[in-house]
Amino acid sequence: MTTGENTFWSSGAVPLIEPEFLSSIIGAASDIALVVSAEGIILSVVLNSHIDSFGNLKHWEGRPVTKFLTVESVPKFEKAHSAYLDGEVPAKPLELNHSDNAVWQYPVRYTFHRFGQEDAALLLGRDLRPIAETQQQLVQAQIALEQGYEARREFDARYRVLMSNSSQAVAFVSVLTGRIEDANEAAAGLLGLSAEALQGSAFAQHFADRSSVELTESLMNATLAEEGGQVTLRATRTGQQVVLQPVVFRAAGQRVLLCRMSSDPGAGKPAEAGAGQMLSLFRSGVDAMLFMSPKGVVLSVNESFLDLAGAPHLSDVVGRSFADFLARGQIDLGVLTDQPQRSGQMRFYTTRLINDLGTRVAVEISATRLDDGDAPAIGCIIRDVSRSEATRGGGNVAGPGQMPAEPARKVMDLVGSASLKDIVAETTDVVEKMCIETAVELTNNNRVAAAEMLGLSRQSLYVKLRKYGLLAKNG
Fold it and tell me: Which of 102, 126, 139, 168 is the most exposed place for a label (fewest CB within 10 A)?
């Protein structure tokens, strides 16, 4: 090899290399060097003085190269050596595997070089064992990585199956953010939401009277108790007393709270006998039952209400406004919340319930104010009267839309003393006046709401109020 037009190496300017220096130069230029005769006999073995992993190979000299090659390397060497003897120096390095009495093996990459005039070949080799060891380490690391991935997938599958099939309500809460990282269906049912809605939400928002910082501090203090501390809270949506038993652990450098949740058995014990039967009536009763906040947010319903509203799950109803299910929306809701809060209860209110399919069902609703300390509520019993709506009105008990006993008796007294036309006119006036009075009373003298409830315009309502002398009375 020359550099440009330089003739330094071919002009004879370089003195001949002394024999005692030649072997050291060859040894430094390679890890192992073999001088092979035309017959394939090893004439000399030169090793790099800085590499001692080859050991003593003096016994190779004077013996065929093929005696120290593995079975698959022999044809490769013979083919390359034959080409060399034919005057074609192999252009590509040749990788051969050496073996010595089958005790050890190692790969070497050789390049062929002409040497002397007797067709002897100089083979300069590089030990490939470091590269092979590195490749083997990479393969082992890849296998270990795949095994780690498989173990993690198996662990994740076990975790998901355990969470979905466990009857114990469980939620994982981040100490740093105070948000729910994961929760199972049992926890979702206890808090009145779906498991998907719980994930990522602030844990404190599902309980009354606790900020996120206060709740996290209470849970962390409970983990320090010697015999498993617990925190009792009231769920915002369901109104249940919930007992939290937290355990703290660290994962990926972050602290996480494992909160096991259960309803408080002591909070549900009533003082009076028959509480179990009342609970059973709520769950299995024929009439729909509903509990809502004073602002009309649904807290809890029974199965009969779900059937009436056409809702498949409790989470589809809880947390929504009751006005979403009423025909007159906020007007009906205002009557059902204002009247019980003023007088404590409302016996009957007739309206229509809208289910998820858009069907309107005639219902009668009775509402009662429930004074429960920190969590007041309004309880409603809802009865489907769509089948009997056409035949109602025969009794003496008057509800909204029914004629009271006394006016009805006065109308009946007219029979025989007045014509049918006059009797019907008198009856119409009595019913119309009674309906207007009832609507104004139910809406707490809200003329706009009363007009909408009666299906009248505001101007028509004022005309009728003036006709029956009710304008000054209710104004």
Answer: 102
Report yes or no: 365 and 336 within 8 Å, Cβ to Cβ: yes
CA distance 323 to 330: 5
Q: Cβ distance 242 to 170 under 8 Å?
A: no
- What single letter denotes the amino acid at residue 448? V
Mean pLDDT of the chain: 80
| Angle value at C-alpha 263, between 261 and 266, nearest 5 degrees | 130
How many Cβ atoms from other residues are within 10 Å of residue 71's Cβ? 9
Q: Please compute, for residue 326, the number of CA atoms within 13 A of its CA located in the half-sphere on the CB side.
A: 24
Write out pLDDT tens, residues 190-217. Answer: 888 888 888 889 998 888 877 888 888 8
Which residues on adjacent β-strands are paired with residue 451? none
DSSP track, 200-254: TSBGGGGBTT--HHHHHHHHHHHHTSTT---EEEEBTTT--EEEEEEEEEEETTE
Which pLDDT belongs to residue 399?
45
Q: Within its chain, how far is the Cα of 2 from the centroid? A: 70
DSSP code of residue 314:
G
Confidence check: pLDDT of 319 > 90: no
pLDDT greater than 70 at residue 127: yes
Structure-block tokens of residue 473? 């009375």
Measure the CA–CA gap between 359 and 347, rounded to whole angstroms: 25
**Is-contact 380 366, C-beta < 8 A?**
yes
CA distance 406 to 267: 48
Break the chain down into helix, strand, coil percent, rounded to 5.
40, 25, 35
> At which residue do the structure tokens 């006709």 appear?
467
Residue 351 pairs in a beta bridge with 363
Q: Which long-range contacts (CB under 8 A, 24 or more apart) does 121-125 make?
A: 121/35, 121/36, 121/81, 121/84, 122/26, 122/33, 122/34, 122/35, 123/33, 123/34, 123/35, 123/36, 124/26, 124/29, 124/30, 124/33, 125/30, 125/31, 125/32, 125/33, 125/34
Q: Which of 251, 246, 248 is nearest to 228 (CA)?
A: 246
Tokens of 203: 């844990």
What residues pair up with 250 in beta bridges, in sequence order? 255
Q: Which two tokens stand for residue 139?
A: 């393969």
Nearest C-alpha neighbor of 335 from the set 438, 459, 200: 438
Round to whole Å and give the CA distance between 393 and 125. 112
Q: What is the pLDDT of residue 171?
A: 92
The radius of gyration computed from the CA coordinates of the chain, to the nearest angstrom, equals 48
